[in-house]
């Protein structure tokens, strides 16, 4: 991810893909040299899009920025919602937070619930590949030990990903990691109460 000067080649690629995931919405095209906010671009006309599921007002989503009773405190802790970004301060334009990494060709929240940062927790679980005797297995070409990690196959796009999910307001990161790994990698939502307790004990130990 590049800074605001847009100097890195092919920066911010994942946030510029079209159509927007789970929709047919095409972003306005943003060339690499125009990603950074410090680059002047008077003709920039991003597409407005917030998913219907977000606009429906689920508990995990903010109201629309235009609603009179909604006054988010950006760049700080806003009640139980953390609106500080790990990337540092972000700018506010016309009452809306700007993506600190640069232009994306789209404004609105897309599938994200929060205005500003949407914090996620993604546990990376690894182990060395071993044989039946417990000895580390060497890669035949590199001669190095093989590091394995847990991945899931996403239902929405079919891509492989690290399991994880959004941090609930006021929730500790460690709790998010356990919950999301249990749900996405261990299918805990489909388990019996006894099986869930066993999973929780193993995750706590892990």
From TrEMBL:
Gene Ontology cellular component terms for the protein in this record: cell junction; mitochondrion; nuclear body; nuclear membrane
Molecular function per GO: ADP-ribose diphosphatase activity
Domain Nudix hydrolase: from-to ranges: 128-206
PROSITE patterns referenced in this protein's UniProt entry, alphabetically: NUDIX (PS51462)
Pfam families: NUDIX (PF00293), NUDT9_N (PF25969)
Region (Disordered): 1-32
InterPro entries: NUDIX_hydrolase-like_dom_sf, NUDIX_hydrolase_dom, NUDT9
Protein name per Swiss-Prot or TrEMBL: Nudix hydrolase 9
Taxonomic source organism: Homo sapiens
Name of the coding gene: NUDT9
């Amino acid at each position: 991810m590049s800074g605001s000067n847009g100097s890195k080649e092919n920066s911010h690629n994942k946030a510029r893909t079209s159509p927007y995931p789970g929709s047919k919405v095409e972003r306005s095209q943003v060339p690499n040299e125009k990603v950074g906010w410090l680059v002047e671009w008077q003709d920039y006309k991003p597409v407005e899009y917030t998913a219907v599921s977000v606009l429906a007002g689920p508990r995990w989503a903010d109201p629309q920025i235009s609603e009179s009773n909604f006054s988010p405190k950006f760049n700080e802790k806003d009640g139980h919602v953390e609106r500080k970004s790990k990337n540092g301060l972000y700018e506010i334009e016309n009452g809306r937070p700007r993506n600190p990494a640069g232009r994306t060709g789209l404004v609105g929240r897309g599938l994200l619930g929060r205005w500003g940062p949407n914090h996620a927790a993604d546990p990376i679980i690894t182990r060395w590949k071993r044989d039946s005797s417990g000895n580390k297995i060497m890669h035949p070409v590199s001669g190095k030990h093989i590091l394995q990690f847990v991945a899931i196959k996403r239902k929405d796009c079919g891509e492989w990903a690290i399991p994880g999910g959004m941090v609930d307001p006021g929730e500790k990161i460690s709790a998010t990691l356990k919950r999301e790994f249990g749900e996405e990698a261990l299918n805990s939502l489909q388990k019996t109460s006894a099986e869930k307790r066993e999973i929780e004990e193993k995750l706590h130990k892990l």
